[in-house]
Give the backbone structure.
Amino acid sequence: MQVTLGCLRNAYNMVLQKFGEKLYSGLVTTMTSHLRQISQSIESAQGEIFLEELNRKWVEHNKALLMIRDILMYMDRTFVPSSRKTPVHELGLNLWRDVVIHSNKTQSRLLDTLIDLVLKERNGEVINRGLMRNLIKMLMDLGLSVYQNDFEKHFIEVSKDFYCCESQKFIESCNCGDYLKKAERRLNEEMERVSHYLDPSSESKIIKVVETEMIENHMHTLVHMENSGLVSMFVDDKYEDLERIYNLFRRVPSGLTIVKDVMTSFIRDTGKQLIMDPERLKDPVDFVQRLLDLKDKYDKAITLAFNNDKTFQNALNSAFEYFINLNARSPEFISLFVDDKLRRGLKGVGEEDVEIVLDKVMMLFRYLQEKDMFEKYYKQHLAKRLLSGKTVSDEAERSLIVKLKTECGYQFTSKLEGMFTDMKTSYDMMQGFLACHGAELGDSPTLSVQVLTTGSWPTQSSPQCNLPSEILGVCEKFRSYYLGAHSGRRLSWQANMGNADLKATFGKGQKHELNVSTYQMCVLMLFNNADRLSCKEIEQATAIPMPDLKRCLQSLALVKGKNVLRKEPMSKDIAEDDAFFFNDKFTSKLFKVKIGTVVAQRESEPENIETRQRVEEDRKPQIEAAIVRVMKSRKILEHNNIIAEVTKQLQARFLPNPVVIKKRIESLIEREFLERDKVDRKMYRYLA
Amino acid sequence: MHKLGRGHRDKLQQFVTITGASEKVAMQALKASDWNLEGAFDYFYSQPQLRTFTDSRHLEELYNRYKDKYIDMIFADGITLLCNDIQVDPQDIVMLVLSWHMKAGTMCEFSKKEFTEGLQSLGIDSLEKFREKIPSMRSELKDEQKFREIYNFAFGWAKEKGQKSLALDTAIGMWQLLFAEKQWPLVDHWCQFLQARHNKAISRDTWSQLLEFAKTVSSNLSDYDAEGAWPYLIDEFVDYLKENGVNQHGQINDSSLN
């Protein structure tokens, strides 16, 4: 249409002279019939021409609308509002919508064509994206509801079916990793599609479709897929796959929960197997190392693939806490692991790396429920390390004590620190002794004494032993020196904890230096004055308790490469009448032969039972103290509440057994600290 | 004694003769009614506790009959004689009830105070009254509240002086005696269990809680609450019963235990 000033003025005049209605309705009629023609021409377009024709006509229509709006601007501003008619531009769009787009044939054909193109593109074909974009924009221009009803609704439906089928096909033919790669690819594809030619409001909808159909509906199948599911990803350290599964599953409700749950139960099972495997339990150090390796493995997975997700960290921790405590010997083993590291494992290791190992040990320690058991073993093993002088680094020892103190408080470590102090004090004392008496000692055996404060060191029954006469003299000198400096104290020799270096000459003149325990020394020295001694005779001479003596004789006579004594008969067991001889034929490649047995080792079953009994005994007063503390502040409390409160108070050290708590309560009733309430027998009252 | 005028002494005498009350009670009643005999009778009969009157002289005689030759206490011999006199077996549970009334400290002995005050509170001052009182003492065991008091009293009474706990054998004997009255079906199992598994003395708490257990938990243990704050010995007893398959009627299926 040619726009001329004339048109404008005509239009202006018409409105002015109150012919607005006529003008408006004329517009409607004209435009409608014009659009009908256009509609027909579009309908008759064949094949691919259809969309192009539609697009072309749309572009023209828009141009025309702009012109018409300009021409009829006066009417638009005056007549239209006052008579509440649709503004011209909007009218033009509405007519386009009603006459062209919603014509019977065109409406469905447009939708089908657009959907068809999308599907083609999904199948890998290249389509005319520009054209798509224009037509989609046209629908948006016609109104959001037009876009949604005429296109988007159906697009989403069709996509649902499409992805439903595709996911089914893939699930049956792909392994988990590949499937996830495909799902990821589709997600990216759809996002890209939206950005190129759909309206942004559709993005979240189509993404949800893909997430639901491809991920959510197959979560369980994927995770549990044999040989390729979550478990095998963990087993084979497939970090990329794990990261993918994390990123995809976090998009859907409960997705991560499933991943976390499968991970947790797998770790629990793996851990449980490890804990219960009798082969593994024969070597405590190796056992603990495996635990640490297991933890490292999952820490790495969580860092690299799971974005350090705290829920997963917590799940890992709780799984470890669960299975570590299934084995009652875990506290002992962890202490043995530490012992091994501090005795030799950390030799030559740099300070930072030492800290790393110790921190890992602390992490395991935190998982332990029975921390008081650990304390008992740790003390025993530390004592042995200190007394045999076999600790790799004093710094490392102290560093660990500091960590334990931070974790558990001063009381946990005060005795341990006492042990270190004793060592230092003893050293100083020895220096003083040698300075004072060094000259007189001359030819006597060289003595080194550690003075242990009772109470700081693990209690042992005071062992009997007759020390060889050769050393009695120098021992007495030390005793009087010490008591001279500290009157009012009592010293008793702990013969089961010392060691000695003996120079021995054998049959053919071969000389060796034997590093032995004090007990072993007592036994061996007897053979300076006798060729043959029976077990009983040795017992009488040394006064060593029989069980310890038997162990001692075994280590001297029955261990290959260390048999400085010979036994008749050659049986494995020691009977009281067995005879022992100095083994002239002893040989060893080494000059220094270690036969001492004062090294920390895994307890035998009976020893283990005994230690446990001692710990259980120690717990009783702690439980009672906790009960009294609770009752003192609450005055009157119901039975189950007492159990809960006491458990809470003690859980940093151990998990008290409710039956034991009950027995302690009854004992306290007996001793009149508590009484039962007269009315409600389940309530207890504190008696001041 | 106060100096009474002749008239008062007569009234006193009359009062005592008619009511059979002790002089002390007669004095109390007459004084309360201002020496009006009728009023004194009203007073007397409206105060039930005064009716259990005893003559302290008779009581003294009774005590002397049973007390030990050298020590001012009644011991086993005296008790045997007493039982003979009142025609009651020394093992009869009514002796426990009697001891309870006397607030006796330990079994097999009564102090003078325990004996006389006990009998006084029962209104006994002669063997005849004693014998008459036996049935009513027995019936006291049927009263829930009194039974509980007697049961709990029995612990302190049966245990050794100076001990905190009750020896097992004594406890078992007492339980069998007491629960014969109370009819607790599990009493034999309980005693068997203790001999098999516990073999130590019984604490006061366990003793008193057992009665509650017998009263509130049915013998098939269907309403036993493991969280019920029962003493651990009772928890162990329940486990023992379950191990041995106690059925509905409190009978053990395992024939080896019969």
